[in-house]
Design goal:
This protein has about 120 residues and is α+β, with helices and mostly antiparallel strands. It contains 2 helices and 5 strands; from the N terminus they run βαββββα. It comes from Dielma fastidiosa.
């Protein structure tokens, strides 16, 4: 399991759409499996689940991304799972870390776009 959490500024809908396109387009086997959104008076929360095949581990890796938005402040947390091997101890988490790297890249790219346009 690998985890990444960050706070950025941006548009909630724009970021989530950008994220889904970026992650799903990051490899041939990557896909958005499902999502759910919670809407409250002053806050929105979207949970998205992505999956892809990891050739390094010969297995599938999933990534859960949660985005909480209050105004233009976005709290983002991504957690990967399923790419490690071993019964009692986890090893070979390369697939999980590589998938999480796609999220980090998408966040950094969006930050640059948002700062440039706003």
């Amino acid at each position: 399991m690998a985890k990444y959490a960050v706070m950025i500024h941006g548009d909630f809908d724009e970021f989530n759409d950008y994220l889904a396109r970026s992650i799903a387009g990051s490899s041939l086997s990557a896909s958005k499996e499902d999502s759910h959104e919670f809407i409250c008076p002053n806050m929105r929360c979207k949970v998205q689940v992505f999956e892809r095949y990891s050739a390094f581990g010969s297995n599938r890796v999933s990534m859960n991304v949660t985005v909480v938005g209050i105004g233009n402040e976005l709290q983002i947390a991504g957690i990967t799972a399923g790419g490690s091997q071993g019964v009692l101890f986890k090893f070979n988490t390369v697939g999980e870390e590589n998938f999480l790297y796609k999220l980090k890249n998408a966040v950094e790219d969006y930050k640059k776009l948002y700062e440039k346009n706003y």
